[in-house]
Amino acid sequence: MMNSLPLFHRIKGQKVLVLGDGEAAEPKKRLVERAGGIVEHDMQRAIDEGVRLAFVAYEDSRACENAAINLRCAGMLVNVVDMPELCDFTTPSILDRDPVLIAIGTGGASAGLAKHVRLRLERLLPQSLGKLANALFAAREKLRAKFPAGADRRRVLDDALREGGALDPFEQSSHDNVSDWLEGATQAEKSRIETLILTSTDPDDLTLRQARLLGEAEVILCDGEIPAAILARARADAVRLPYGEVFSGNDHSASGLTIILKPEF
């Protein structure tokens, strides 16, 4: 189970309430402004205008608690700095490769841990990652025209974006390859079945290949009890069925990559 639902909230041109001054409040003001939001300091005006998000950064904990209750009653989602038990949402450590954003959160457990995970990822991800995203966006209509079916587009993109693929996101120059890749892209394999033998209940024990296949599979067949932590490594939209269950009304051969998970632990 995740302790939070990760979401990206668009606030460009919208007001966000930030209460408090000093070291705790300033980072929240900068964060709002960085995302294109407008900082509002007046609580009553924010309530009257239907502001939806609020940061509370008073130095006094009782003042923070009272403000959080009042704002929540007014319909706002509230973040109270350094008091996760009073928060409706928390702010992650952000890795920015515009328009690619990677948010690392710990549910308020340790902002320092989130920061150092981000710093490690900063060294791994090329600065050009955002250029790749923009190049793929610019090629979207040509990609749709060449591969009208959504499943086909997903397969050719999976093939190109995987490690060592034509558009490997970890390669500095991948964004320069999008046009040539699209010109030569061919229909990906429609149907494929792989069996993964699980020797542990710990998802960290998955091999790199197993983890990659889980992340790409469109159908997952469970031949026994599969730990939720392992299933969590699969795509959220992947079809999950007991092994041997019939696909009623669906063409099994058009399902793309199907994974059979067999536990042997």
Entry keywords:
alpha/beta, Double Stranded RNA Binding Domain, 4-stranded parallel beta sheet, Rossmann fold, 10 helices, about 260 residues, single chain, about 35% helix, 10 strands, 4 domains
Question: Your description of this structure?
Answer:
There is one protein chain. With 265 residues, this protein is α/β, with parallel strands linked by helices. The chain folds into four domains: 1-90, Rossmann fold (3-Layer(aba) Sandwich), CATH 3.40.50.720; 92-125, 2-Layer Sandwich (Double Stranded RNA Binding Domain), CATH 3.30.160; 129-184, no CATH class; 191-263, Tetrapyrrole methylase, N-terminal domain (Cobalt-precorrin-4 Transmethylase, domain 1), CATH 3.40.1010. It is 34% helix and 19% strand. The chain contains ten helices and ten strands. The protein has helices spanning 26-34, 43-48, 61-73, 111-124, 129-138, 140-146, 150-161, 178-184, 208-216, 228-231; strands at residues 15-19, 38-40, 53-56, 77-80, 93-97, 100-104, 191-198, 219-222, 239-242, 256-263. The strands form three sheets. The protein has a four-stranded parallel sheet. A four-stranded parallel sheet has the order 7-10-8-9, covered by helices on one side. The protein has a two-stranded antiparallel ribbon with strand order 5-6. Helix 10 links the parallel strand 8 (219-222) and strand 9 (239-242).
